């Protein structure tokens, strides 16, 4: 597999095992599932009990090479390298046969501090339990040296991993090179997955909202102030600015409770999602993305000061067609002028393919990235 990738928000992909199981509508047309059918012996299989294929030894060494090249990359690009795992599976799929490779992956992340690892999962509820499992497994390895003492260096490495995992799980020291994300395609999945993601200590938390299949309100998940009395939330413009107060004594007052009780009721600042990626679906059977869904997320991120990246329209793009916008519209019919399928409440959407549809939203390319906690400021 190639070192580089065409995915707009990363530099490398790393898939230490291949294969997964579909869990929600966003998985329906999974490109990795389609790809795997060409060579399941290498690319794994899809299904709860299907085969997962562990990568070859040479493949596992690639991140170590990227780590050695980190200084040269940063000198050339002015930022750190980003590595997306797992493109062809899910890092936090809970299967006994994935415990060992997941532990190896976590140790690899620990030993490559110059790489920013973008761990994306559809199973955020599994993250903390599986990190604890990894901690227990590493601790067992570190406390089982050979009788002759010949592997004490290896034992010390295991104990370093134990300390690293313990600090991450407790939040005492979160790995600065780990960006933790979850996939969200609609409001139902946002309600299920975002709260679970926010419970995990992380230097950067992000959402991959591709394919976006419905409108999503993220206002409570982005950085905001929160009132414990009435559950009111508020995010001032530019919420991500570092000079905004974290001290509750300096926090804004709740406009609702303060008026009701006649005194200042201070709100709490809560950290939320640090980055949002949005994209439409591509490939066979692709479902269109309503432009207003993407616009709403862009505007929510702008108001909260959260970086927003518009990855693609996907297979369908908005079309300028006067005939489609007329009053005489038959649901499900194909417009004779532009060929788009007429849908109530939708603008004309024409299937033109991913390349032709492009990446611009309202005439602008959105390439927002968060700053890397490990050192560099976002462009």
Mean pLDDT: 88
**Main beta sheet:** 7 strands, parallel
Low-confidence stretches: none
Strand line-up in the sheet with most strands:
1-4-5-6-7-11-12
Q: Count of DSSP helices?
A: 12
H/E order of the elements? EEHHEHHHEHEHHEHEEEHEEHEEEHEE
Measure the end-to-end span.
Answer: 29 Å
Q: Which radius of gyration do the C-alpha atoms yield? A: 23 Å
Please explain how this structure is put together:
- With 379 residues, the protein is an alpha/beta fold.
- Among the domains are: 1-68 and 83-102, no CATH class; 224-270, no CATH class.
- It has 12 helices and 16 strands.
- It has helices at residues 31-36, 40-43, 57-60, 62-68, 70-77, 99-110, 127-142, 152-170, 187-198, 255-261, 291-304, 354-357; strands at residues 12-13, 17-18, 53-54, 81-85, 115-121, 178-183, 204-209, 224-226, 233-234, 268-270, 275-279, 308-312, 316-318, 349-351, 360-361, 364-365.
- Strands 1-4-5-6-7-11-12 form a 7-stranded parallel β-sheet. A 3-stranded antiparallel β-sheet has the order 9-8-10, with no helix packed on it.
- The radius of gyration is 23 Å and the shape is globular.
- The model has no long low-confidence stretch (mean pLDDT 88).
Briefly characterize the structure.
The chain contains 12 helices and 16 strands. The chain is of the alpha/beta class and 379 residues long.
List the defining traits of the structure above.
alpha/beta, 379 residues, 12 helices, 3-stranded antiparallel β-sheet
